[in-house]
Inverse folding.
């Protein structure tokens, strides 16, 4: 059974088709890059899977079940959406403790995950004083509270410095390859994921345009960058600049 | 459910809002009480050993209820404002239990609020009556009922606040609507005799019934609901708001 299964999900906002019959799966022990230009429908697809947005048709399954029917979601799947989902007046530790309460986890998990993401020293600081990178790490800490076997990260490298991005890469590889976690990481910055992912799912204008392993995609010498542009371009020729031919 | 209530209580107690509003509510009650005490010292003012004076100072603790309604509203709207609703619904994807936990948590916090504010207010009220030569047993010993009713008013206002917040997710809109309602619309409906038939069934009228003294200040005795009916009506308002929210705003996509 795949850890994540997106089945024919469609969602329109005010008549605009944000996601159009998208299906793909994510298996345990792999890192899958969920790629697409800005506005391609990545976040909407993830929100449909996570029960935050109701798809018009289709469904998303986690370990074979709809997210909203998981008895205690945090123990099965950790999700990091934008790192802005934090109350600026609450400390990092209390943000995590609020989650521990609701999920029935021991409060000591808050300190453990703060340590795991490398911001143990900032637990007593209000989130309002956090840098973007610290907020990303705090959000990630929240996803780890229930020690889940599935991780979903939406644009996790936003706001991370090069050192942070390198840390995230190692972290994701450790989770997938050492702990057997199924990781789905969305991004529009290819360089972020090129060295990390095993599989790629590419969508453009709400439609799935490719699913497969990274090595398949780049087998005939084409770089991920070129493959991505070929798969996602809308058929219009690239602009030329400064009178170049 | 207990886990969710504990989580909601922690949410409220881990930001500054609750104690700022507690101070504001104490300050508001102190100001209101101070004005009555001050007026009693002026010529033509109520004598501090009179029944009318006692009837105006004992229920004064209930004048800070708006502040717990704000807490109730903010318990829902700040989740949308700061987008923490994402985390909340990811942790507990069934949304109705989350709102019900907020109602329970709001009731518990406002109970604490009510006990503190009404307690301090009644100490001051009692002291001012005794120092004016009056006695503490107001009209047929209604004082305990008035004080309990005042605390009850805090609890129901906070619960209604959660319902309003769930219905009107926009923080500013929810606050403006409820403040206009409490300060502008309801006083008119409760005071104007021709409108009292409607007014007594509205939250403000029903809450007034909880701590009304039945003393005539020249407008006629207010025509209010019996206390137990009033309490049911108030809990009913909170229930209706939550029920409406659960089939409307709560079902909406969280983007």
């Amino acid at each position: 059974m795949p850890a994540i299964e997106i089945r024919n999900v469609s969602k329109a906002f005010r008549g605009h088709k944000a996601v159009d019959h998208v299906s793909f799966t994510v298996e345990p022990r792999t890192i899958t890059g969920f790629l697409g230009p800005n506005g391609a429908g990545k976040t909407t697809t993830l929100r449909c899977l996570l029960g935050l947005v109701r798809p018009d048709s289709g469904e998303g399954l986690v370990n074979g079940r709809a997210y909203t029917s998981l008895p205690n979601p945090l123990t099965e799947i950790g999700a990091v959406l934008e790192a802005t989902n934090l109350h600026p007046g609450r400390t990092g530790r209390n943000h995590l403790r609020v989650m521990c309460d609701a999920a029935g986890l021991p409060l000591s998990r808050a300190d453990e995950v703060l340590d795991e993401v490398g911001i143990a020293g900032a637990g007593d600081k209000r989130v309002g004083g956090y840098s973007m990178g610290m907020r990303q790490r705090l959000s990630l800490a929240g996803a780890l509270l229930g020690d889940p076997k599935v991780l979903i990260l939406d644009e996790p490298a936003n706001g991370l410095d090069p050192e942070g991005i390198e840390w995230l890469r190692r972290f994701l590889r450790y989770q997938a390859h050492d702990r057997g976690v199924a990781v789905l990481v969305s991004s529009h910055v290819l360089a972020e994921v090129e060295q990390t992912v095993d599989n790629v799912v590419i969508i453009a204008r709400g439609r799935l345009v490719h699913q497969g392993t990274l090595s398949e995609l780049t087998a005939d010498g084409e770089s991920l960058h070129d493959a991505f542009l070929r798969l996602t371009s809308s058929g219009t020729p690239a602009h030329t600049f400064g009178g170049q031919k | 459910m207990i886990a969710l209530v504990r989580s909601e209580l922690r949410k409220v107690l881990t930001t500054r809002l609750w104690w700022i509003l507690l101070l504001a509510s104490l300050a508001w009650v102190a100001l209101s009480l101070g004005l009555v005490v001050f007026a009693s010292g002026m010529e033509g003012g109520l004598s501090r050993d009179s029944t009318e004076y006692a009837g105006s100072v004992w229920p004064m603790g209930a004048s800070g209820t708006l502040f717990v309604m704000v807490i109730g509203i903010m318990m829902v709207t700040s989740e949308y404002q700061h987008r923490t609703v994402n985390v909340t619904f990811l942790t507990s994807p069934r949304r109705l239990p989350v709102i019900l936990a907020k109602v329970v948590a709001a009731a518990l916090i406002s109970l604490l609020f009510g006990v503190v504010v009404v307690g301090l207010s009644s100490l001051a009220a009692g002291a001012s009556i005794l120092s004016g030569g009056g006695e503490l047993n107001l009209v047929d010993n209604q004082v305990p009922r008035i004080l309990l009713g005042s605390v009850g008013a805090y609890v129901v206002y906070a619960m209604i606040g959660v319902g309003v917040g769930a219905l009107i997710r926009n923080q500013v809109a929810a606050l403006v609507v409820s403040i206009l309602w409490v300060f502008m619309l309801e006083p008119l409906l409760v005071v104007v005799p021709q409108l009292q038939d409607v007014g007594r069934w509205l939250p403000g009228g029903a809450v007034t019934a909880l701590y009304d003294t039945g003393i005539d200040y020249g407008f006629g005795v207010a025509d209010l609901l019996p206390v137990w009916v009033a309490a049911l009506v108030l809990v009913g308002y909170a229930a209706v708001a939550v029920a409406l929210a659960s089939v409307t705003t709560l079902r909406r996509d969280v983007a």
